[in-house]
Amino acid sequence: MKSVNTNNSIKNNIKLIIIALILIFQSILSFSNNGDFPYKVTINIKLPSNFSQYLDSSTNLEFNVRVYNVGDNQLIQEFVSKSNPIELGLSRIGVYSVKIEVYSNDKLIFQGADSFVLTLLNFYISREVEVLPVLTDVLITFKSYKRLPEGVYLELTNPDYNEGYQIDISGDVTIQNFPEIIKLKPGRWFINISQFSGNNVQNDNVPDSSTTDNNQSFIRTPFVITVTPGVLNSFMVEIFEDTFEIKPNAAFFTKLLSVSKSASYTLLTFKQGRFQGKLSIDINGVLTNSAEKTLVSGIQNVTAYFENGSIMRLEYPAFIPENIRVLLSSKFTSSNASASAIFNEVNLSLQNQYELSVCEQITKSVYQIKDTSSQWRVYESNGSLFISNSKVTFGPFSRDTVIFLDAKSPESRFRVSGRSNPYEGSIEIRYNSSSRGFTIVNELPLERYLIYVVGSEMPSSYALEALKAQAVAARSYALDKILRTRTYISTGANLDDSTNFQAYNISAPYPNAFRAVEETKHRVLTFNQVIANTYYYATSGGIGFSASDVFGTDAAYLTSRVFAITNLASETRTFVSEDEFLSFLKTWNSKELKEAGFLEAEHPFFRWRVEFTPDELIKRIDGLTNVKKVKKENPQIGTTLSSIWDILNPSSSAGVMNMYVSKRGNGGYVMAITIETSDSYITVSSSDVRRLLNVSGKTIILQNGTKRTDFASLPSMFFAIDTQKNSDYVEKIIVYGGGFGHGVGLSQVGANSLAKNYNFNFSDILEFFYPGTNIANYFDYLIAQLNVKK
Q: What's the confidence (pLDDT) of residue 142?
């Protein structure tokens, strides 16, 4: 009987279990049908115990939650919560994992993960997920006033984590060094400098929880910094003779290279890296929203102060330029103006010691090039940059990487493929994504740069005193551009190497170019205690223009005047009518012009001419913008059928009845041209005059008979117009002109003539072309202007 009862009991229990399972299953179905989840999970997020050290208690935290079904390897839930704990609802049993990311002000600061199992018997569970600090980048820069002995280390310790770092700062930790960037956990870190006498020092950036008794601190009281998660942290170490100072949220930049503006500023520094700046930046105590118009490529010894990872203040001493940064052109026009500064790839030949480094975010030294000569190629492939020679390839690097080749010897030289002359100094290469090519900036000492300018701007046959005048003008011009022009601030250059500014290394320098620069070393022209605008050009047509007409800037020393010498005095001539201008410019007898005292009379470009047809000029008008058309009150209509047809078809050349210069500036600078047709007066002004008289493909005849076909625009804006007519209509237009260049300031041909023919020295030449200016040593001048000690 017992046996039977036992079996019945087992059967009853099985029935109860089955009923329970059915009820559970029905419950699950009920939950599912109602849209509810039968399984509830509470996630308690455990924050680090010391988080109040670096986060304000009022900080709003957001929890990004991702829930995965491990068995299916699927993300099943993702949401953001602002509350802690977090409630999860899950629909079925299984193995799950949850990943938590904690954000503050959109910056990731903590993260953690957990896994758990749901079964039929646990409808509700509670889990605690510990989130840990995300490692944060900390930039460490150094400013040192002494050379440190061997065994000196920067120590960073955090007792909360029982962790420490030691960085070897022995030797020359000056502004020549690259920065350190390490990853630290958020919180309070103690900083000290110690000198070790033993061999038990940890390697750089290796955590060290041990202590040692054989060290002596530079200073016994350590500094404390707070590392904040989610942003770039920084501190500057300033080392004095017997102590040091830590400046939190600060960095020391050896040199500021470029500034570009979009949603924020991006500032590129030489050996420290690329950093974001706020749109409003305090620069030496002045708050500005136009940092790109205030900062200068090449300023040195800059201290930057950060707020939430972005630069909010910059301080630097008065800037006295000793170097210059030049953007190299990849193509030139016939007049040596820059046609392009984009290289498809960069092929370099390096001679004598260069240091290769790259900057993605932080600049890192890559390679020491000690070969006497080596070939290097910088190129883009599949969205990445590479640097290679026959032995090694570096990369891939991102396309916004900046590549530095820093000259380490006065004898360092480089050549660019396609250019005949070697260059001095350092190289900076960037990729331009919009142009799909590279730019090259060459940095070198200003005085060395001038040697290559003088050699390119004046031929070796010119008199030494003319070359010296050119050296002073070029030095003044370069300094003015460095201090006042921001054309290439986003590229990191002060100017380019073409006649858009001044020609650099287009021709190889010669002995007298070296001598001219050396004998005028540091000398500049000033006017009213300001560096003068020392514009210069090739040759005039007998008259120099005023800066106000050509560039829109007034300068008392850049006014219009006739460049003719009679008894060593400038002769004044004026032209009232267009007939007088035309007569003067049609005078091609160089002997007669020289006897009249014109300095440049024997130069081929002193006189030139070029021909047009009316038809080609009329066709160009539709493409111009500075055009004014005035209808005649009584249109002149010819009696022949052909003349009526010409009027109805204004593209016909017979529709042009006259063409003349209708407006001139001081000295005869052409500012407007008027074309008279049968029914209208069409006036073309401003820069459209050059576009109307585009000479691409045309022959320009010089006064010595030379024919030039390589010009795109007129050699100068000093010209008059002659017309040849058939009855009432123009058949041919002849432009008679004089000079080559913009016509403001020093005429290079005129300077040579003054030196050779009139025995002017360089200061006499400069006074002739820039009357009222003074020669000064630019170091003395800038020091006086900037009120700093020499």
A: 87
Beta-bridged to residue 426, according to DSSP, are 443
Q: What is the pLDDT of residues 141-183, one digit of tens each?
A: 888 777 777 888 889 999 888 889 888 888 765 545 567 888 8
Looking at every residue in the chain, the average pLDDT score rounds to 85
Please name the residues in contact with 180: beta carbons below 8 A apart, sequence gap of 6 or more: 139, 140, 141, 167, 204, 205
Residue from 571, 322, 597, 598 nearest 447 by CA: 322
User: What pLDDT is recorded for position 186?
Assistant: 87
Q: Do the Cβ atoms of 195 and 218 come closer than 8 Å?
A: yes
289 close to 280: Cβ distance less than 8 angstroms = yes
Distance between CA 469 and CA 762 in Å, rounded? 5
Q: Using H for helix, E for strand and C for coil, what is the string for 251-318?
A: EEEEEEEEEEECCCEEEEECCCEEEEEEEEEEECCEEECCHHHHCCCCCEEEEEEEECCEEEEEECCC
> For residue 396, which phi and psi values (nearest 5 degrees)?
-80, 150
DSSP state of 401: -
User: What element of type H or E holds 87?
Assistant: strand 86-90
Q: Please, are residues 187 and 138 in contact by the beta-carbon 8 Å criterion?
A: no
Q: Would you say 620 and 673 are in contact if contact means Cβ atoms under 8 Å apart? A: no
Tokens 């007088």, residue? 580
pLDDT at 381: 94
Predicted local confidence at residue 173, as pLDDT: 59
Contact 466, 754 (CB under 8 A): yes
Q: Closest Cα to residue 306, out of 238, 362, 234?
A: 234
765 vs 464, 468, 762, CA distance in Å?
A: 12, 10, 5
Distance between CA atoms of residues 136 and 503, nearest Å: 48
Q: Give the C-alpha separation, 748 to 765, whole Å.
A: 10
Contact 494, 482 (CB under 8 A): yes
Pairwise CA distance, residues 318 & 300, whole Å: 9
Could you tell me the end-to-end alpha-carbon distance of the chain, in angstroms, rounded to an integer? 119
d(CA 239, CA 218): 10
pTM, to two decimals: 0.83
Structure tokens at 787: 């009120």
| Sole residue written with tokens 């989610």 | 230
pLDDT digits (tens, 9 = 90+) for 115-131: 999 887 777 899 999 99
Cβ atoms within 10 Å of 441's Cβ, excluding its own = 26
The answer to whether residues 190 and 172 touch, using CB atoms and an 8 Å cutoff, is no
Compute how many other C-beta atoms are within 10 angstroms of the C-beta atom of residue 568.
Answer: 11
Backbone torsions φ then ψ of 592, nearest 5 degrees: -65, -40
pLDDT score at 167: 86
Q: Is 705 left (phi over 0), alpha (psi -120 to 50) or beta?
A: left
Comparing C-alpha atoms, which of 113, 61, 62, 65 is closest to residue 90?
65
The helix/strand/coil state of 164 is strand
According to DSSP, residue 18 is labeled H
What mean pLDDT do residues 362-375 have?
Answer: 78
Q: How far is CA 760 from CA 277, 765, 769, 776, in A?
A: 52, 6, 12, 19
Peptide linkage before 614 cis (omega within 30 of 0) = no
Give the single-character DSSP code of 583: H
Residues 465, 516: Cα–Cα separation, whole Å: 8
Tell me how far apart the alpha carbons of residues 321 and 423 are, in angstroms, rounded to a whole number.
Answer: 20
Q: Concatenate the DSSP letters of all residues of 336-376 into one string.
A: S-EEE--BSSEEEEEES-EEEEEESSBEEEEEEE--SEEEE
- Rounded-to-integer distance, Cα 405 and Cα 428, Å: 6
Q: Which regions of 433-548 does DSSP assign to beta strands (E)?
A: 437-445, 495-496, 523-527, 530-531, 536-537, 539-540, 543-544
